[in-house]
Amino acid sequence: MTKVGLLQLDPTVGDLSGNVQRLAGLAQLAEAQGASVGVSTELAVCGYPPRDLLLEHDFVQRSFNAALSVTSSIPLLVGTPVPAEDERSLPTNGVVRCGPEYTTITGEGQARIVAEKQLLPTYDVFDEARYFAAKNRSGLARSFGSLTLGVTVCEDAWQSAGMTPSAYANDPIEHIAEWCRQGVAIHATVNLSASPFHADKFTKRLAVARHAASVLNHPFLLANQVGGNDDLLFDGRSLVAWPDGRAVVAPSWQEGVLLVDLDDPAACSWIKSEASDALQTGQHSLMLLEANDNGQAMVDSIDELTDAVVTGLADYCRKSGITSIVLGLSGGIDSAVAACVAAAAIGPENVTGLAMPSRHSSQHSIDDAEHTAMALGMEYVLHRIDGMHERVEETLGEVLEHGHTVAGENLQARLRAILVMGYANARSSMAITTGNKSEIAQGYCTLYGDMAGGYAPLGDVYKMEVYAMAERFNQRAEAAGRTAPVSSSTLTKPPSAELAPDQFDEDTLPAYDVLDDVLRAHIEGGLNADEMMASGFEESLVMDVLGRLERNEHKRWQMAPAPRVSPRAFGQGWRRPLASRHDWRGAP
Amino acid sequence: MTKVGLLQLDPTVGDLSGNVQRLAGLAQLAEAQGASVGVSTELAVCGYPPRDLLLEHDFVQRSFNAALSVTSSIPLLVGTPVPAEDERSLPTNGVVRCGPEYTTITGEGQARIVAEKQLLPTYDVFDEARYFAAKNRSGLARSFGSLTLGVTVCEDAWQSAGMTPSAYANDPIEHIAEWCRQGVAIHATVNLSASPFHADKFTKRLAVARHAASVLNHPFLLANQVGGNDDLLFDGRSLVAWPDGRAVVAPSWQEGVLLVDLDDPAACSWIKSEASDALQTGQHSLMLLEANDNGQAMVDSIDELTDAVVTGLADYCRKSGITSIVLGLSGGIDSAVAACVAAAAIGPENVTGLAMPSRHSSQHSIDDAEHTAMALGMEYVLHRIDGMHERVEETLGEVLEHGHTVAGENLQARLRAILVMGYANARSSMAITTGNKSEIAQGYCTLYGDMAGGYAPLGDVYKMEVYAMAERFNQRAEAAGRTAPVSSSTLTKPPSAELAPDQFDEDTLPAYDVLDDVLRAHIEGGLNADEMMASGFEESLVMDVLGRLERNEHKRWQMAPAPRVSPRAFGQGWRRPLASRHDWRGAP
């Protein structure tokens, strides 16, 4: 019985030797457990997304060489960029064959390319038309162990299911199906993927795989990247689907091997990675799904979100060499949950929380901040900012008096940022911001103040989800016999920025449950104002929220990102050195 | 004699009605001066680059309708996005025909599309494959006035000259040349462009036009966008080239019409825009070029750079509704030149400079800052930061004592940012940063400190160029009978951040003339370390500069941009909410 190992890899973008080593380790593990062939994720040797590294010819060539150098005692399909044919062409996103039959052949690089990606996604988080040339022939791995496999790369499988934002001119799955109809004996089709996570993405990926298996009339196997790279997060969940709709899905947030028995879902198994630094968040169980089950009932959305956010920060720190984190602790829900995330990601002993009360801060805020820090077991420091605050107010004097009131409020947030960044710089820690998606989208935050930091763990989490995550962290702590880190006071008090006397978020914003619904309809739902009103939202609410979202009210200029400093920010052409970018729609 | 008006337009992205009005104004001007037909720039009705606005079907439809609604008493070719054929397709980047023969026909939208862009640049600052479908048939405008014109859009002309980073599969210029060989009588080919500015770009664009005219054996006319939009800057310089190599080039940095006599270069003329807010920087003269002249001798590179930087800031402010600017004035060369740029862009009466000395600041710094402000006629305010500085140092105490020294230095820069942002927020001004490209590339700056601001006018100007711009601003002031704004003390003292006693930039960085050469070889030249050493740079210098550039030394985490807050920052998929992005290459 031939078993296929789907190597669910957590590569680091650019770390060619490290990725090759991880890959070889997974292949060895797969073989030890009975796999006779192995399949990696997309661009496994360079990691996904390699972005502008692909513009360096030297990098592409070194990746390709690294892929060919993978040693394995079973045959492997390995994803790698393939060097361009000439100076006026782009590289391709390819798959090479490594392993026992091939390692003795030298100088045969081109002959070992078994597939090149045909559909290059260039929407949302994808930019592949920028880096790759598209090919128009599907891949086939003959005599691969005892198998003949159709070979596709990620997006190649999505056109057939009609699940891309716009249609491509060709359909790689249909190409392979046509070969089958012509009598080529293909045992299964594999797909090397780097398919990022978002809420509900998993059921979509499963639908794509089931559709492909049904069209091909043979098993469809998808090996997906796991872990965080740059601003993308991958959930893993490699899977296999059969033509009758049965499917087996690997765990999320873990590195390892999905060992696939092509004939028997029940004989598939999950082998976790043996690498000492391997990602191992969440539950180690396979999903075995019948045809009518999309597995959604087996996934708790708040557990999922919590694990995703923790995994993202943990992997970012590991891959970037960050070993300690500092953040402001206000006593509010956002900073409490951000502290829980940081502690779960890199260990509470590596996290420092600064309570920085001003004259507008209440005693319960200080108490609640301290409670969270103590319960998590992280370092806790208190610095009052009143003295500094008064000095700055004196200095600005008349300007504040005659100016917009938000200018005075921002001072406190910015003084706190100076302290947080002072700790971060002095200790080579990373500062993290604590803002949530709802308030950031409304501009209810201070640039160079509470927005200062290298990573925003809750930046894509709506306020009501932050509350749900707090409850989940409390439940997890209690289940482990520890004190719940988020106090009931933090959970129940009305949200306040505490930048002015008796200030509450709802003085400025709609109630968060309402606000979140409006934002979700616009941001995730893609509805414009007219469509939102047609779907039942009140006009005044829609105009209020969207107006604030687009204009960020008087804070517009505070919202500008700081200038980027990577050399790539300059490009080779002239870029107007613009630090601020906003979306004007008609006259401002 | 048929004259063609090339409408060198300065559109605002998204301002459909405003752009249509500007366009109609230019067309009227062209007609009044004898043009019998007019040609706009690329995507003139929506402005370039429209970016994610193109993802909104409604926006594309409204742009198309706006283009069809342009009223003109002469026939016009107008650039506009063209709605997708169906829900699973992308729009195209097209050209429609407006004017007397067409305005009476209603419901004929599709029939009026005369061209759709074939080559979609997706490199450097371009992302067109993300938004548009490519077509594969060149455009032809028959009975256009008394002319038949070949019609191309920007990139369409660049493949023929071999001047794109990678090759396209088809060549629109060759398509039109083939029609000519088949006997179609084509009088000229036009090109609707939005071709951004960078140093030396102008001679490349001229070479493209001459190549096309030579291949086509008829005049080639290029109408180019002018002005700033988002992070792109366009220099205008619409032009016409004849098969024998003669050419006429319109002025840069100005809105207006290049009136082309197809038979006689000497009969071409420039008509400046009559719009009250039209961009009118630099000299209003045409270049008449013989075949062997690329015009470079007529362009002073420092004048060019100065005009570009001023135009960029001026147009950004106008289009974004920014009417006042605040910046820190240190007495150093960068802030002096940034103040000159701001004063030239929006008028000195709308600029405020803050001198904010600390205990490390010298008296000459304060004097030099005041000199610049007085000479320019801008508001000047002095706030010492010593008191605040001491309070923050006291607060951080031990953390600073035992930490990295840069943490202490950063405090001053961040306190200054609080004051600058306090002024900006209170008065609804925009803060600008004063850093130059050399120091930003080396991380010789403080995030949330001197990097705080909505726009970095010198962010793409090397340090030695900043000195040259200072001399130019002084010459211009003296020529106008005003005091030179940059004092000789500012021009001649050794650069210093003045964040520590006796601190000079060259203690940390190579001499700026050396540094600039190294950075230019890497950033503009695209050379890697090996190639730079092979070209003659010393290994230690290369490793020092590139090492600092890639790692930004201990400041790495300070370099992160603040979280973006536009709704587009979230996309519709899940983006890991990453505030910091850096380029890891292998293990950090």
Describe the model:
The first copy, chain A, has 2 domains: 3-299, Carbon-nitrogen hydrolase (Nitrilase/N-carbamoyl-D-aminoacid amidohydrolase, 4-Layer Sandwich), CATH 3.60.110.10; 309-562, HUPs (Rossmann fold, 3-Layer(aba) Sandwich). Helices cover 35% and strands 16% of the residues of chain A. Chain A is built from 18 helices and 20 strands. In chain A, the strands form 4 sheets. A 7-stranded mixed β-sheet of chain A has the order 5-4-3-2-1-14-15. A 7-stranded mixed β-sheet of chain A has the order 6-7-8-9-12-13-16, with helices on one face. The N and C termini of chain A lie far apart (67 Å). At the A-B interface, helix 1, helix 6, helix 9, helix 11 and strand 20 of A face helix 1, helix 6, helix 9, helix 10 and strand 20 of B.
| Helix percentage of chain A | 25-40%
CATH superfamily descriptor of the largest domain in chain A = Carbon-nitrogen hydrolase
Strand % of chain A is: 15-25%
The CATH topology of the largest domain in chain A corresponds to: Nitrilase/N-carbamoyl-D-aminoacid amidohydrolase
* CATH architecture verdict of the largest domain in chain A: 4-Layer Sandwich
